[in-house]
Recover the amino acids of this structure.
């Protein structure tokens, strides 16, 4: 049963069930098919038949535009939506195909007012629902319409007759005749591509082009004079790309769901993004020689490229580097890398989510105001209608029902007077008068008078009745719109907003989780694509970190990919792990890794890893691979397998933990989970509640039989304990940190210990100078004798660092002062290196100029080329340099450096360069020349070096056409 005067009714035979729904406007995202999204919330699961009947409201009647029947539509339990594709309808009778084609051209509903009735019924009739939607569409060409985007491209890339400010003011703004010429040119272009006709129009001094497809009006497009046209088009493109929320309509009349409007806008904004962008750099280095220890060729060429593009709508990055110096190297520096930018995809999705959340919050607040404002207006309409009905009843004895039964036809009312006048009221009045005057003829005269009064005031009564009908239509219109607005917000919240709010923070939620939560913002099927579950894909030269005891960031030539299956994330990595050996050659290990990641609870992660490697045949053939191994029975040819489990999570609000346990085995061995074959690392991070103090503790054990030769250094036979604390004092003015490291190494039948203390202190202030002082010791082994037994790359040492800095700005001039002290020493095998340095620097920054002056002292080891002996050389140095931006395209720089040792002038160098950026092309040229005169030691001859660099950089962006 459909109740008269209501916008809809839903019947569900189960009294405990509920069902409500709304209907978005039809749209066409691909300009070939048309679909309409039905959003609903149901407490039951059913298969239903959906019937949609849409009519366009004209001045005095309505015309049918489409009628579709969709059978076997699944109705899910809870909040959900379904896309009703018109091409898949089971019945399309009484559908105007010209109107449907207009939607494909426009991408949306053509302007007008539509009444759309939706009927939903299950086969067993447990669900029966009907609702009529009032859907007005604005006459301006929709921002999300592909036709508007095409028109923007046409006008944005038009000839001078359109975009030249001098011409456009004459052709469009000033002259209708020239406007017609311009419109004819645009019309020909659009008709040839889209079949669209264009007609010029002037409204209040503004110039418009009205677009039509066959008999359907598609919208009005404003043409702005001069450069304003380009600015307008650029602004629209920028909003579609970066600020789609500003284009969402949330007024009462043309409101759809926030998610529905943004879904269409995001789809069009994608077309504004660059499908290919990047930069390419080419540099040529020239010189007559190199300084000692540089290990660079005199003349070489370098090429760098970084390209970002989209493949199947996935952001993909390509990086590459090539140097001609690799021709003389065993360890190559050139590389190429392909990677799926999942972080970029996630960032783009988070931007959409944040746009939606902001606009939804704004719409909810606005909706509350609209409910109050239009609720008051509805009360006013109802009161006026009641007053008119009371007046008709009191003065003429006419009831609302009698008028409606005769559809306001007063002639019919008069012909049927006894049925239509409230005779009981008039007769009761007459009888009371009979008791007083005992004159029955007066009562009959009263009836006759009422008839005469109706005939006399027929025009006035008709006027009042027409007003009542108008009030009823107005009331029903705004009541329906308010109901649609309220239901849209409710379902939008249930389907999209609540799911987004229920997610963890954006950086903790996976890309697939974000996709699922924001499905209402995305095109249908986007969440179901294969790429939705892809967590990463990298190929080429990559640095893959998985855990401390498997792949720990080693250089890998190969590929790595991962996929999110929902209940588990899986990843696979294959390739060759490469190291530069002691003799400068490259050691290769064939490596593979499989990983499963589980997330049993919020902020808890568990990883299972299976890692294996074996030396490559080329590496096994080198004598250097065995020359330092004097351990009997050691086998380097057998493949090694490592099984690892890794946990990281938040134990409490203030305590985080990370634990890894691993065990290694060779081919043919059984898994042994004992301390000798295993490695484990436990890390705790505690923030003491209600303080600024942080505590960190770490314990690491690597058994003597644990093996992973692909790690940067051997961890076997070591136990390490680390405790550290950091705290902020004096309202975060001072930060103090303290670290203690204890290491026990138990290899080759003996045990030794090592204790290391470290600290760091820093101040933070904008008013006073900032000070920093730190001492950091480090070690990867406890005794030098151990490093001679097996080929590994261990190191021990310490670093002292001190820094004081201060900066201020006055009259747009920036002053920066800094003093730096550094002392470090390290030992790798039997090689020792130590250096000290103190440097003071002043930087002056003006509007177009910048100047730098520095002076200091350094001490570092050098080797006398004549005698071959090494000694520490102390040097005082100073430098001064500056640069100026001569124009916005051209800048130059000049620098001078002098160094003085105990024997006199050690070094003097001059550097000059310029950089030029072309105005019309995204190309930059760099030129640099350097002259150096130096003498390394007192016995060394003085040497003159001449060097130069010629470089070119090109930045490019290509958009989708």
């Amino acid at each position: 049963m459909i109740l008269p005067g209501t916008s809809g009714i839903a019947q569900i035979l189960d009294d405990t069930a509920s069902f409500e729904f709304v209907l978005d406007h039809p749209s066409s995202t691909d300009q070939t098919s048309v679909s309409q999204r039905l959003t609903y919330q149901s407490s039951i699961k059913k298969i239903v038949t959906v019937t949609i009947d849409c009519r366009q409201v004209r001045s005095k009647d309505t015309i049918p535009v489409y009628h579709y029947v969709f059978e076997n539509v699944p109705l899910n339990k809870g909040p959900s939506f379904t896309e009703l594709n018109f091409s898949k309808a089971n019945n399309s009778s009484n559908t105007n195909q010209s109107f449907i084609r207009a939607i494909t051209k426009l991408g949306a509903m053509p302007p007008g007012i539509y009444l759309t009735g939706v009927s939903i019924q299950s086969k067993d009739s447990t669900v029966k629902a009907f609702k009529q939607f009032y859907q007005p569409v604005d006459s301006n060409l929709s921002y999300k319409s592909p036709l508007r985007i095409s028109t923007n491209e046409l006008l944005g890339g038009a000839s001078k007759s359109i975009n030249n400010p001098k011409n456009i003011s004459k052709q469009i703004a000033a002259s209708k005749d020239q406007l017609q010429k311009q419109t004819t040119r645009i019309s020909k272009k659009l008709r040839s591509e889209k079949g669209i006709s264009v007609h010029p129009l002037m409204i209040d001094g503004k110039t418009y082009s009205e677009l039509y497809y066959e008999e359907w009006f598609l919208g009005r497009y404003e043409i702005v004079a001069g450069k304003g046209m380009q600015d307008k088009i650029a602004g629209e493109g920028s909003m579609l790309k970066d600020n789609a929320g500003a284009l969402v309509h949330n007024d009462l009349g043309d409101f759809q769901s926030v998610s529905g409007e943004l879904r269409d806008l995001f789809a069009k904004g994608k077309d504004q993004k660059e499908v290919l962008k990047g930069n390419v750099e080419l540099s040529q280095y020239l010189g007559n020689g190199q300084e000692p220890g540089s290990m660079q060729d005199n003349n070489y060429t370098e090429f760098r490229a970084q390209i970002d593009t989209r493949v199947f709508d996935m952001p993909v990055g390509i990086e590459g580097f090539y140097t001609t110096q690799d021709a003389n190297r065993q360890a190559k520096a050139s590389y190429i890398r392909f990677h799926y930018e999942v972080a970029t995809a996630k960032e783009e999705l988070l931007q959409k989510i944040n746009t939606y959340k902001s606009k939804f919050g704004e719409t909810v607040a606005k909706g509350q105001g609209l409910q109050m404002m239009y609720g008051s207006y509805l009360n006013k309409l109802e009161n006026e209608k009641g007053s008119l009905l009371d007046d008709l009843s009191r003065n003429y004895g006419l009831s609302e029902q009698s008028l409606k039964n005769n559809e306001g036809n007063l002639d019919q009312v008069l012909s049927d007077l006894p049925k239509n006048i409230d005779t009981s009221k008039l007769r009761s009045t007459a009888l009371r008068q009979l008791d007083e005057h005992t004159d029955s003829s007066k009562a009959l005269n009263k009836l006759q008078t009422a008839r005469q009064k109706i005939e006399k005031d027929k025009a006035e009564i008709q006027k009042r009745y027409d007003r009542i009908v108008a009030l009823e239509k107005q009331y029903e219109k705004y009541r329906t719109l308010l109901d649609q607005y309220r239901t849209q917000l409710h379902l939008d919240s249930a389907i999209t907003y609540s799911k987004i709010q229920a997610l963890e923070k954006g950086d903790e939620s996976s890309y697939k989780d974000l996709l699922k939560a924001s499905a209402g913002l995305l095109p249908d099927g986007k969440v179901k694509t294969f790429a939705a579950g892809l967590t990463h894909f990298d190929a080429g030269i990559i640095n893959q970190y998985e855990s401390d005891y498997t792949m720990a960031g080693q250089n890998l030539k190969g590929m790595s990919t991962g996929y999110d299956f929902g209940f588990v994330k899986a990843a696979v990595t294959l390739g060759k792990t490469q190291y530069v050996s002691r003799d400068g050659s490259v050691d290769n290990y064939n490596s593979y890794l499989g990983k499963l990641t589980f997330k049993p609870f919020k902020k808890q992660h568990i990883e299972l890893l299976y890692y294996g490697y074996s030396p490559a045949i080329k590496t096994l053939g080198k004598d250097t691979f065995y020359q330092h191994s004097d351990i009997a029975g050691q086998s380097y040819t057998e493949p090694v397998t490592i099984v690892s489990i890794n946990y990281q999570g938040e134990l409490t609000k203030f305590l985080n933990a990370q634990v890894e346990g691993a065990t290694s085995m060779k081919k043919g061995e059984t898994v042994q989970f004992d301390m000798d074959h295993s490695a484990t690392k436990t890390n705790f991070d505690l923030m003491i509640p209600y303080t600024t103090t942080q505590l960190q503790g770490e314990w690491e054990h690597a058994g003597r039989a644990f093996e992973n030769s692909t790690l940067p250094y051997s961890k076997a036979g070591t136990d390490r304990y680390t405790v550290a604390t950091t705290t902020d004092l004096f309202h975060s003015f001072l930060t103090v940190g303290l670290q203690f490291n204890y290491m026990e190494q138990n290899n080759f039948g003996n045990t030794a210990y090592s204790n290391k203390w470290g600290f760091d202190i820093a101040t933070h202030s904008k008013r006073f100078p900032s000070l920093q002082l730190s001492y950091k010791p480090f070690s990867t082994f406890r005794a030098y004798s151990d490093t001679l037994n097996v080929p590994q790359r261990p190191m021990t040492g310490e670093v002292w660092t001190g820094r004081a800095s201060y900066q201020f700005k006055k009259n747009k001039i920036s002053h920066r002062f800094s003093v730096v002290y550094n002392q470090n020493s390290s030992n790798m095998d039997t090689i020792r290196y130590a250096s000290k340095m103190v440097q003071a620097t002043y930087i002056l920054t003006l509007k177009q100029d910048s100047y730098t002056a520095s002076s200091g002292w350094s001490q570092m080891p050098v080797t006398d080329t004549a005698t071959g002996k090494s000694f520490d050389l102390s040097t005082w140095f100073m430098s001064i340099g500056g640069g100026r931006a001569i124009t916005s395209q051209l800048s130059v720089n000049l620098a001078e450096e002098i160094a003085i040792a105990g024997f006199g002038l050690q070094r003097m160098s001059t550097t000059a360069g310029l950089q030029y950026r072309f105005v019309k092309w995204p190309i930059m040229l760099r030129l640099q020349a350097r002259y150096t005169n130096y003498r390394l030691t007192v016995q060394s001859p003085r040497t003159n070096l001449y060097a130069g660099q010629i470089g070119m950089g090109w930045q490019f962006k290509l958009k989708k056409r």
